[in-house]
Amino acid sequence: MSQTASSVSELDRVRAVVYQLLSSLFGREIDQARLEQLTQPQATAFWLQLGQDSRISDDVQVIMTQLKQIGNERQLLELAADYCGLFLIGSKHAPTPYASHFLVKGQEPLAFGEQHHLMSDFLKQSHLTVQSDFKEPADHLAVMLAYMGHLCTHASPEAQSAYLNDCLLSWLPAFCQQVERQDSGQFYQALARITLHWVDSDKQSLV
């Protein structure tokens, strides 16, 4: 059963914002416009609020510090290069951000395969579509996090919990471990740890 607009709590709205934020950071590399959004006072206050959880406070501080230290185009391009090296240039050990690469066992995962179609069905049932300029399969982590943001304000706690358990926590830990191993910088491994902690904690709060 979906929630009505009047039944959506402020907490659920905040949860949705966190999922949308995490989705955007995995969805594409940070450009100058996005950097300005992420470092404006309102965003800084949001990061500080998120960092009140002592278990991820250090990682939130890493994110905030790295964003604030970007002072020229070269530094911005270096962060973009970290993103591309991790998530766009496919290699055997790269932490590719697709559920299918972690859930398909015993065979080579296919782009736009079973997990993509599963997520596409979820989106269709909710009358949602992937943005036209985002050409990735629907089982991309950014899409899956954004969809969870939608569920925060449109689905029952039981439905949200099932989605987190079956569609995200079934592969997110392995993905985050690969990011930690492969990230030559600090930004994306900190982001991965924040994301995993957030998803796991959110799942526990819905039980």
Which percent range describes the beta-strand content?
under 5%
**Alpha-carbon Rg, integer:** 17 Å
The largest sheet, given as strand count, sense and whether it forms a barrel, is: none
Helix content: 55-70%
Structural class: mainly alpha
Query: How many individual β-strands?
Result: 0
Distance between the termini: 17 Å
Mean pLDDT: 90
Low-confidence stretches: none
Question: What's the CATH architecture name of the domain at 5-28 and 91-206?
Answer: Up-down Bundle
| Name of the CATH class of the domain at 5-28 and 91-206 | Mainly Alpha
| Order of secondary-structure elements | HHHHHHHHHHH
Give the overall shape, derived from the CA principal axes: globular
The CATH superfamily of the domain at 5-28 and 91-206 bears the name HscB, C-terminal domain
Counting H and I runs of at least 4 residues, what is the number of helices?
11
